[in-house]
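We store sequence, tokenised fold; for instance:
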Amino acid sequence: MRKNFGAQPLLYPQPVLIIGTYDEKETPNLMNAAWGGISDGNEISLSLTETHKTYKNILLKKAFTVSVATAKYVVEEDYVGIASGNKVENKFEKTGFHAEKSDFVDAPIVKELPVTLECTLKKINEDGIVVGEIVNVSADESVLGENGKIDVNKVDAISYDPSNHYYVRLGEIVGKAFSDGKKLM
């Protein structure tokens, strides 16, 4: 038997995205966003409200970064989601995070977060969805595997559980994409 929950944003896993921007004074800002994801080969879409400082900064600079949230910094990552950039001038200082300017876009990289998508603003859809073009992905060497690619287990990424309001650690490999299904061919 199944239980109905009605119309809710209950999709699993739901990425926890840390959005980095600069404001008009070049002050770095961060925001935790759970409603976003890859929408094309080199494109990411984010559902952001116009009142967010991050939204205003994206319009101003035409650029932003998206870092993958990790279990190690869950307190800091949650803080940048519950503290408004419109009220807190420098969330980087409060969290202890360090900003490093991207070489590719006019937006900050969080040194402590190991995987970052560096994006330019492609467009804002009629419904307010921010669409960014991914121009570079940078990763700290500490999260690379022997093959030189990003190792998801080393990233220690977290997902948001919208039903229970938890952050959940991701990691166990259970299959090989574009391969395991061939057993049924």
Observations:
- The domain at 14-184 is CATH 2.30.110.10 (Pnp Oxidase; Chain A).
